[in-house]
Specification:
The chain has about 425 residues and is mainly alpha-helical. Helix content is about 75%, strand content about 0%. α5 (about 55-70) runs antiparallel to α17 (about 360-375), α8 (about 110-140) crosses α17 (about 360-375) and α15 runs antiparallel to α20. The chain is globular and about 70 Å long. The N and C termini lie far apart (about 45 Å).
Length: about 425
Amino acid sequence: MSTTGRAAFAGRVNQNVFYGWVMVAIAGMGIFASGPGQSHTFSVFVGPISEDLGISQTVLASAYAMATLGAAFVLPYLGKIVDQWGARLSLIGIVSILGLACLFFGAASGYLWLALGFGFLRFFGQGAMMLGSANLVSQWFSAKRGFALSLMALGFGLSMAVHPNLGQYLIDTMGWRQAWYTMGIITWALMLPPLILLVFDKPEDLGLAPDNAEVQPDAPTPALTGLTLGEALRHPTFYLAAISMFFIAMLVTTLHYHQFNILTTNGLGGEWAGRSFTISAVVMVAAMPLVGKSLDRFKTRYVFAAALMVQASSLVLASFATDINSLLIYAVVFGVNNAFSMTMFGYVWPRFFGRLHLGRIQGTGQMIAVVGASLGPIPISIAFDVWGDPSGMLQTLALAPIGAAIAVFLFLRTPEGVEAPVGLE
């Protein structure tokens, strides 16, 4: 379909529903399709890969952490590409390479190959796919950005529910290598057609405005506004937001990676430890629209601080989840925690720094968050190895988001040169 034909189709759709919601749906599919690069998918492959290749789980975890760390430092360059090429072309390239990364990983025959495969999957899945999807939605929405990003993030909840079960089914029926080949093909089939046929980088490409705001006939297209990366890096808000997102990404990954071992060490059976993921996924899906609405309605620093306090609560509750009732409380709070973290990661950067150079700023901010994610499993691993019990470490780690919450509540402000949405400053 030609660009003219795509634009004509989008125009017909927009007569009935704002075309930005189509972008939200496709971006949500993108977040779902990031599943092959997410921790919850890897979790079911650790045992089969370790047994097949004769690599210990500790060495496997180290390769995973190093690959995640390495992938993080490439994200700012990806952000620059998204600014130059737009989200559509960037995501087409990302999806194409992510599918190839799945095939590459499935063919791994040793540690080095495995580590490179981890790096490709983490960068193009957990990093690039999420950055490109969030960038797309952020360009199409402003006043309703929080709600739109929360709907996009439902794709992560769906991935949590689907990808581990799909991975386990494919492992049981055809083996772990063929499972990765299959997931690569599914990724291509799911994402390439809508990206090629339906996506536009921003509403201005169709003569529209963010949130479907009224555009005066024959009026010039408003120029995009926002800080450059250099200007953002000179403002304290960037560092306060980045450090807070570092803690959120690190500690969410901590709980995702170690949740099964934490709960079984607390005396819960493996069946209930596994069910906690499903409970959290359901709660996350239910809570995301509420989180998004709160970002559009209340002062950003209040919601951001609340997100950090929920993160701290999750860590503490995980240490006390020793029976079914306490497990249910933990799983519900952790679901809310995931709802906050998945919505905040795409919201913070356009909210405080504008749309003009969003890719570069978002890429740099997400790099810092992914570094946190790469370090997430390490403190609890040390606690298991040294003390055999992670409870004290979990409670100690909770102090970090509490401190960040206080700083955000007191000091987070919109930089000069960026217009704060009414009522959110």
